[in-house]
Each structure stands twice: as C-alpha cells, then as structure tokens.
Amino acid sequence: MQLTRHTDYALRILIHLAANPNQLISVSELAEFYGISRNHLVKVVQGLVEHKFAKTVRGKNGGMQLAQSTNDISIGKVVRCMENHFNLVECFSADDNNCSLDGACRLKGILQRTTEAFLKTLDAISLADISKPKLREHIVNLK
Question: Do 13 and 48 touch, CB atoms closer than 8 A?
Fold first, then answer.
C-alpha cells in the first residue's frame, strides 16, 4: 500500500507541530523546512483543520498548532481522513470496476482484509508515539 503525498505531508506537519507544542508554526515555515510547495501545503493544512487535528490563528503573528493532545491523535484516523480512498485494485471501486474476474476472484477479499489490518495497526499508534523527544530534538536542531 502506498499513501498519497497529501497524507505524507499531513503526517509531517503533525509531527512538526508536535515537536513545537508551544509555538504557532506558519505554512511558509513548514514549506521552507520540508522543501515543499507552500500552495500544496495550504491544501493539506485545510484538511488537517477541517478534521480538527490542527487549528490556525490568523494575523501577522499567526500560524497553526495542534488542536488536540498528541496522545489523542491516532495515526490511523489521520490516514483515513486524509486519503481519498483505499482502492488498491480496480475492483475496489464501485464506479470504475471493469474487472471480468470480479465476483469469482478471491484477491479482493484478501486485499480488503490486509488493508483493514494495516489501518487497525495505525489506529493503535498515536502522534505521541511517533514524536518522542529524540525526534523533537532532531526537528528543532534542523531549524
């Protein structure tokens, strides 16, 4: 399974916010830090705010910060919210399924179960679990 860049960037932003809990971080700062287009990050931030993982403060000294405790943000939930779908193969899509094997092939069920197991594993991991002090120190030192 491969996650989209959108989800990858969302996780990087959340890790960065977790590493700087008492600061407002601007999209421009994140774009520079990660070498990612500011315009693309704005869309990612909008999704994080919409799903209440982050909150923003407008104005000259504005920025964003986590909207919840790092212990309360499940990586599985972030992935589910940020990904458009988990259609690993064509037959997963009700709209675009032209597979002549659908209905007889057992691969679809196997892939569905492995996707569910993947997400269940991520559900058990919090943002706190992946942003331990050593990672925080690393991010702060890179600035």
Answer: yes
List strand residue ranges (DSSP E) for 1-127, in order.
54-57, 63-66
Give the CATH number of the domain where residue 93 resides.
Answer: 1.10.10.10
Q: Report pLDDT digits (tens) over 79-91.
A: 999 987 766 555 5
Domain that holds residue 129: 5-137
Number of domains the chain contains: 1
Of 70-74, 84-88, 126-130, least confident by mean pLDDT is 84-88
What is the pLDDT at residue 50?
A: 97
pTM: 0.82
For residues 46 and 53, give the distance between their C-alpha atoms in angstroms, rounded to a whole number.
10
For residues 129 and 75, what is the distance between their CA atoms, to the nearest angstrom? 9
